[in-house]
Here is the input.
Amino acid sequence: MLPCQFHEIMVNLQYSYRWLKPNTKFVLFGLLYIMMCCTSSEDSESPVEVIDPVDDTVDLVGAALNYRNHCGGCHGQNMSSFVEREWTYGNSFEEMVQSITNGYPDNGMPAYGATFSEQEIQELTDYILSEIDGKTKAMLEEENPDLSGLISSDDLTFRLETITDEIPGVPWGIAQLPNGEILVTERGGSLFLVRNDGQLVEVTNLPDIVSEGQGGLLDVVIHPNFENNSLVYLSYSRANPNNSSELTTAVARAVLNGNSLSQVETIFTALPYLNSGLHYGSRLLFDTDGYLYVSVGDRGQRDVYPQALDNYLGKIHRIQDDGQIPTDNPFYNTQGAVNSIFTYGTRNPQGMSLHPETGAVWEGEHGPQGGDEINLLEAGNNNGWPVISYGLNYDGTSFTDLTALEGMEQPVHYWTPSIAPCGMTFVSGNFYGNWRNDLFVGSLKFEYLHRLKMNGNAVVGHETLLEGIGRVRDAHMGSDGYLYIVVEGPGRLIRLVPEQ
Here is the structure.
């Protein structure tokens, strides 16, 4: 083995090692010792030790890497989504092999039969089943990193304050009220109010939410004039009233009275309804003029909807606070176009934030395998999906040879490989020193907070923070001047507090 090949293996293994069981780590160290001995030998004629082909320790390394690169973004690097769950398609060895091989595209599970060999699929199945054997969610929570003590970043020393670690399910979006309390959505269909003392109170009288696939209760935002009107906006997956198997992204507006909603009304529905559990988006954002932006994913139909203006899917929409359409929208007078469209050519946008100085709307979205993007939105822009992309299909094949084309916008930044970005916010004010105006993006795949160091609209540096914190679902600049994040596994609301 060449030294460079060994180095490459070590780089890859560092990401998978921490999830292996102790006995697996022991075997792995033995294997690496043998590899190092072979590397250091100068005798090209030395006999090579033959490894038993039925021994699965070598295959386990490949399976761990395949899990990290292809499965961890959705299921968690610590396999949290497999533990103590109801298995939709069965959890026997044969059923899991079937799921990995053929996939369930309508529910977001790609087919890997063309990506992996039959043996690799069986090894991946064995690896998953062995790693989750006997595990509980409580055990996973015990493996979480220590959140106490000071943390040093490139430009700031800070500590973490856990406001609550009792949010059930998958927390998704957060919004702070003027009194300091925080609303947290849970994808399964619950809305919680986190009191200033950390007490979790469930909010009642929500709209009819369907939690299926990647859908459920998604984002939450409050009206800019909340102190006077108490208006709250929720994005969620809604069933077709004429066909309950078809769903889409919708936005409801309601008045928050204590821990209950009243005057609940749907003000936005992204047509058409589809029999798909994929790519709902969806983030909500008010700009400085009081317009509401709604991000909607392509629902897994990349070749049908994102580039066409006659539908709502794969678009960023701009509406008034009551759902009416601004007459200065870019396609308001375009025949056949949906007049709420602000930009189009979008895949699965799960991040939006307002620049604190320019007031511009920025958007973040998942690519497929690679090609996650951060975009600066301008009225009428075509952001290119799926005609141009820096990503590949999940099976490693190409769906486009183009990364740029006239008339289509380039992202401000893109990630290859994917980090699975979810939720993002600019830091405003002077409280965080040199973090000011930098963009912070949550990573589902690698479970950290990604800092994009900004100079105007240009990314000039990067920093990963809070590695291993959990799947970061949202980042929010609070009205109190603090930066908040919400993570899953367990569901925690965390405040980042700078040391003065």
Q: What stands out?
A: The longest strand covers residues 243-257.
